[in-house]
Amino acid sequence: MHHPPDTLHARKRRKARAMIVSAAFQLFAEHGFDNVTVASIAERAEVGRTTFFRYFGDKQQVLFADDGAEVERMCDHVREKASQPMGDDLHAAVGLLREANAAARPHTALSPAHSAVLVRLLRESTELRSRYLLTRHERAIRLAGALAEVGTTESVAVLAAHTAMACELTAMRLAGTPESFGARLDEAHLMLGDLGRQAAS
Length: 201
Description:
Oligomer: single chain
Number of strands: 0
């Protein structure tokens, strides 16, 4: 992966973006998602509205700020780690996506505090839940594409990507705390493994 040189300008941009994300999460934690405006986020971050819109299209995007980077890393992982064409091995395809998720997460995951805020907001805001589901769906389409690139049959690539999404949504729903998300994700995948074994017997 090619990284641009770390210029002063790039560092300033990263800092401004991080300030906006931090301010937004603080305000969401204090007032809930629906009661926070872009103007109040910009004010708390000490930037202008124009600066806010240079980084984010709306306040929802701030919550999923690193989503694009995470999907990108996952797709790269799929392309790098698929040793032979996957064909129609659904089990292997789902396993590879799970590995890809684990590999990408440490680089892009929200801090536990931000994660806790997001989980709470998703419970409270219907608007936000639908946006979250849309980001998961877009991610599944991208991952299915990456699986197809490494020789997975189309139906298996699509099913594997949506199965991984189902496991993630299940874990989100059942995790009482952000810390328990990983354990719930493991459980969801184990249940799928059981399903595979039952089908085979």
